[in-house]
Amino acid sequence: MIISLRISKIKKIVLALSVLFFLSALPFSHKFLVENSSNKEPIFHGDTTKQRVAFGCNVFWGEEYIPKMLEVLESHNVHITFFIGGTWAKKNPDMLKLIASKGHEIANHSYSHPHPNNLNKEKNKEEIQKAEDIINEITQVKTKLYAPPYGEYNNTVINAAEELGYPLMMWTVDTVDWKRPPPSVIKNRVMKKLSNGALILMHPTEPTVQALPELIEEILAQGYNIEPISDIL
User: Start and end of every NodB homology domain (predicted)?
Assistant: First the structure.
């Protein structure tokens, strides 16, 4: 009888401890599920109901080509979105001021160009925030869009951006201009995939600048407007 009571008491203790362990794990489990199991997606295109497209130019290098790029854009009365890297901004404040002074949208491309998928949420937030701070210090512009380096993203990266108020941006058309293909290849890559709301990824390279005049003219000739990314979302 005594042994039976002891066994019953032990079972109750084990059950109580199990319940406590389960309850204590709930917040972690919920957080893990929210951050890692929901299939969150970035933005790959703008509003598809209107005939508008946008260029997004990622800048961590290539400053020698930016003045000419700005001339081409200004001569066609076109404004685009420049995704600026924080360390680049720190080294090239006058160039960044010039971009902003021409009326182009300034957006966020991280501070040091890490691989976002290798970082936890807090490190991703730190990268975004540091870039935002240095860009704001130079231009007095608060960035509103975030394009992660290497086009990397997962739920952790998206959550980090969202917690800082940023939609995470991808692209519809990749010019792959960082490989420096001939200007005609860049133009054809864009025109083959042009559609309402298309987001066109490019970088400041020599063939990109050479391709831009004809590319812009062909896009406009097909009835599209070219606007900053924020304006077509």
Answer: 51-227
